[in-house]
Design a protein that fits this description.
The structure holds 3 protein chains of 3 kinds. By secondary structure, chain A is of the alpha/beta class. Chain A is built from 12 helices and 8 strands. Chain A has an 8-stranded mixed beta sheet, with helices on both faces. Chain A is globular. Chain C is 37% helix and 21% strand. In chain C, strands 2, 3, 4, 5, 6, 7, 8 and 14 form an 8-stranded mixed beta sheet that branches. Classes of the chains: A alpha/beta, B alpha/beta, C alpha/beta.
Chain lengths: 284, 180, 387
């Protein structure tokens, strides 16, 4: 008898398993939540395109998730995904990439995609460091932390990326951590089922290249900290900035209906095609 | 034939050069139209060039012109030295004061009150360029009158075709009367 | 996607007429004739008129034109669109072309058919923003990092902007690679007559489709077929070194070696099928002086050759229509009886360097920078000085 097959095996490229994430890394958790989310809402992975950039978390869709995949240049996945979505709005287009990709080098693409409200789901795995390249400071690294490129200490404040995306005009924005797996999973389902630009900031752990610089040696250490630092968005509303200084605000940060970019583009094209036809009929 | 239209934004300078080029193409001739672009064309000064020939055009940006239409004083001063000796200068006489010292030898000068006539006859200063076009073309025979009419009709805003064509014919009339 | 109903409708309504239009506009119309489905761009002088006209007209033909936040994103978006099966294009000028180099490299590595129009202006940096130049000839060849090959064509009239952009789309699909239409600000910004043919005269080859996902990036084929997104084939596209299946393998030396050599040689070994030149040889074959030029510079260059011949001088003329891959055989052949080859170009001598590699004749650049094209007279005087 063959071994029983895991119900989610159809969603991963089995031939390249096991995955190569470091021990304790949060990327495996995100892959797990993502495949569960896809299965849970009955998405057909044949009608999905997963887009990623360069960095550890970009490996979640490329190569592990089994669908059409676009593994792009560093920072540009949202711009590539825009071209895919505009021409194939019937496909579910998901971007999974890291904080360096999405908020660092590609920050401009992020805010403009949110402004346009293009129907993409962007899942940004925020491990607060450039992990793949060996632990350099990221725009999301907290102030004071020593990294390989801030060997004395980081003097920059960390970017609150989800808040930025709310301000830029996204339809749906949430923040969760790899500790909050079930709400994360549900949030991913919401993001992928609704129209418009959806963004989830997933606070994740990199014990290898970040944890060891801040005294969190294992994945478990991180999860414990995520649990302690997390505060629900409704509770956080009544608190001052100082009180929230070291906390991670979790939950749904925005959920609004706005005209979607590709739908509006298609309307323009349909109008113009009709006008041209009318022009012809007039001539005839 | 190399023609430069020069003046101020809003005088229909660029569209005039476009219309002449388009007319030449309608006549089956070769034509190249060129103009100032981008930041170059900001700040009011404006120019439009057109080259017409029976054969292939090799000179893309000529240095010297056969014809200059100057609709402002700065345009006249900047470009009249670039007229070829024996070339043709057409200007709006109410807008330009000429200076012999700037002008090449043996040029033929024509000065008409295009803007003033446009305002008095059509109530619109903007059609001065059409008067100039009719006038210039009658003097030089650059393109056929039929082509010029067609090019104007296809290039001006919808609903203004009649007025523009009438202004062009006013220019033809002025040239026929020998107004200088 | 071939010419769909909306595009056929558009062409049947616009075609069969002669227009008077900018080279930039001709390029935009040519793209629609080529069946362009998607355009993404960012404003820049002297290429904005391409985007403006496409924005106006492409929706009428059923396509979509978007303005992205920068040229990096524009280039990314057209590659994304290409993998859905779209024919896609962007247009820019020097500063934007520099930004696009990153994803042009991605397009080459992933063998993505798409068209990049570069209406060259005077550089480096912002340079003379509104003025024409031909300073990006070598950037078009070597602008993105790593070993690669490229196809680039250079039109010398508004009509050729219309014609060659269509050829660019055909070449992009045939060789599964980004193709560059290397215009210059001069041909982009002159208005000339352009004949847009009737629908019946428009021909397209459709993109080759692979049968198996395992062959999308190689297999037995020099130029593999694509599989577009949405077919349930789990296509894996990556800019990293990959196997024929698309799966990354960035460490095995022979994987990289085979991939890059195949991508390089699919253009190199088809050089004779790609390259086009136009020659105008001295009628009695006695020329010892030749002129090679391209793009806008080829216009005054040709005029100067004609003028010299009218004065009884023997001069040969060759125009490069294909800039890359270089017409090495045609140029070597052209040079055989020549002592000296003059190369008028709107830079300080870029194509001259390439010509020099393949001829025994002396190669002399006739440079022109500053934003004004050569005059016929200036090239004529150089010719008369050496004949």
């Amino acid at each position: 008898m063959s071994e029983p097959r895991h119900r989610l095996m159809d969603f991963v490229r089995e031939e390249i398993m096991p995955h190569r994430f470091c021990s304790g890394c949060g990327c495996g958790t995100v892959l797990n939540a993502f495949t569960n989310a896809v299965e849970g809402i009955g998405l057909d992975s044949a009608k999905m395109v997963c887009v990623s950039g360069i960095g550890c978390s970009s490996w979640i869709p490329s190569p592990y998730f089994k669908s059409d995949t676009l593994h792009t240049t560093h920072g540009r996945p949202i711009a590539f995904a825009t071209g895919v979505k505009v021409m194939r709005p019937d496909l579910t287009v998901v971007v999974i990439a890291g904080d360096g990709d999405v908020a660092g080098i590609g920050g401009n693409h992020l805010i403009h995609a949110a402004r346009r409200n293009i129907d993409l789901s962007v899942f940004m795995v925020n491990n607060m460091i450039y992990g793949m390249t060996g632990g350099q400071v990221a725009p999301t690294t907290p102030a004071g932390v020593k990294t390989t490129t801030t060997p004395h200490r980081n003097v920059e404040p960390a970017f609150k990326v989800a808040d930025l995306v709310v301000a830029a005009g996204a339809s749906y924005v949430a923040r969760w951590t790899t500790y909050h797996v079930f709400p994360l999973l549900e949030s991913m389902q919401n993001a992928m089922s609704r129209k418009g630009f959806s963004f989830i900031e997933i606070m994740s752990q990199c014990p290898e290249n970040y944890g060891r610089r801040i005294g969190l040696r294992t994945g478990i250490d991180f999860l414990r900290q995520f649990k302690e630092k997390a505060i629900r968005v409704d509770k956080a509303r009544g608190m001052t900035e100082e009180e929230l200084e070291d906390r991670i605000v979790i939950g749904k940060l925005c959920d609004v209906e706005r005209p979607e970019y590709v739908t509006e583009l298609q309307k323009v094209t349909a109008e113009q095609v009709d006008l041209l036809r009318a022009e012809k009929e007039k001539v005839d | 034939m190399i023609i430069r239209f020069a003046g101020f934004g809003g005088q229909g300078i660029v569209v005039s050069s476009y219309i002449v080029g388009k007319s030449a193409v309608l006549d089956g001739k070769k034509a190249i139209q060129n103009q100032a672009y981008g930041s170059e064309s900001r700040g009011g000064e404006c120019r439009g060039d057109v080259i017409i020939a029976d054969e292939e055009i090799y000179e893309l940006e000529p240095t010297y012109y056969d014809v200059l239409i100057a609709m402002t004083q700065p345009a006249y001063e900047a470009f009249v030295p670039l007229l070829k000796p024996g070339g043709t200068l057409i200007l709006d006489k109410d807008l330009v004061v000429t200076d012999k010292k700037l002008e090449p030898k043996r040029i033929k000068k024509y000065a008409i009150s295009a803007t003033d006539i446009a305002f008095k006859t059509f109530g619109r200063k903007i059609v001065a360029n059409m008067i100039i076009l009719g006038y210039m073309n009658t003097l030089l025979g650059a393109v056929s009158e039929g082509a010029l009419e067609k090019a104007i009709s296809e290039s001006v805003p919808r609903g203004t075709e009649k007025m523009n064509l009438e202004a062009m014919r006013e220019g033809i009339k002025l040239a026929g009367e020998g107004v200088k | 996607m071939a010419l769909d109903e909306n595009k056929r409708q558009y062409i049947s309504q616009r075609g069969g007429k002669t227009y008077f239009m900018l080279g930039d506009e001709a390029c935009a119309y040519g793209a629609i004739y080529a069946g362009c489905d998607f355009f993404a761009g960012y404003p820049i002088t002297p290429a904005s008129e391409v985007a403006e006209l496409i924005a106006e007209e492409l929706p009428k033909a059923g396509g979509i034109c978007i303005q992205m936040e920068d040229e990096l994103a524009s280039m990314a978006a057209i590659i994304g669109a290409a993998w859905t099966g779209a024919r896609s294009m962007t247009a820019t000028s020097g500063p934007g072309f520099s930004l696009m180099q990153e994803n042009i490299g991605y397009g080459i590595m992933t063998e993505t058919p798409c068209v990049i129009v570069n209406v060259q202006r005077s550089g480096p940096s912002t340079g003379q923003a509104t003025k024409p130049a031909q300073g990006d000839v070598l950037q078009a060849r070597w602008g993105t990092h790593g070993d690669h090959n490229i196809i680039a064509l250079a039109p010398n009239s508004a009509q050729e902007c219309f014609d060659l952009v269509q050829e660019c789309f055909e070449l992009a699909d045939t060789y599964r690679t980004p193709v560059i239409l290397l215009m210059d600000g001069e041909v982009g910004h002159i208005r000339e007559s352009v004949v847009m043919p009737e629908l019946s005269a428009v021909k397209h080859t459709s993109r080759k489709i692979a049968e198996r996902t395992e062959d999308v990036f190689g297999g037995q084929e020099l130029i593999p077929g694509m599989i577009h997104y949405g077919e349930g084939m789990n296509v894996h596209v990556t800019g990293s070194t990959h196997l024929a299946s698309g799966m990354r393998d960035v460490t095995t030396p022979h994987v990289h070696d085979e991939l890059i050599k195949r991508i390089y040689s699919k253009i190199d070994s088809n050089r004779e099928n790609i390259v086009r030149v136009e020659t105008d040889l001295n009628p009695d074959g006695k020329a010892r002086v030749g002129v090679i030029s391209y793009g806008a510079s080829a216009r005054p260059a040709r005029g100067a050759v004609k003028l010299a011949r009218a004065k009884g001088k023997n001069v040969d003329f060759l125009r490069l229509i294909t800039i890359w891959p270089f017409a090495k055989k045609q140029v070597a052949e052209f040079s055989k009886e020549l002592d000296i080859i003059l190369v008028p170009e709107m830079n300080l001598g870029q194509m001259s360097r390439e010509i020099e590699r393949f001829v025994d004749s002396d190669v002399v650049t006739v440079p022109r920078i500053g934003g004004v094209p050569h005059s016929v007279d200036e090239i004529y005087r150089v010719i008369m000085g050496v004949v």
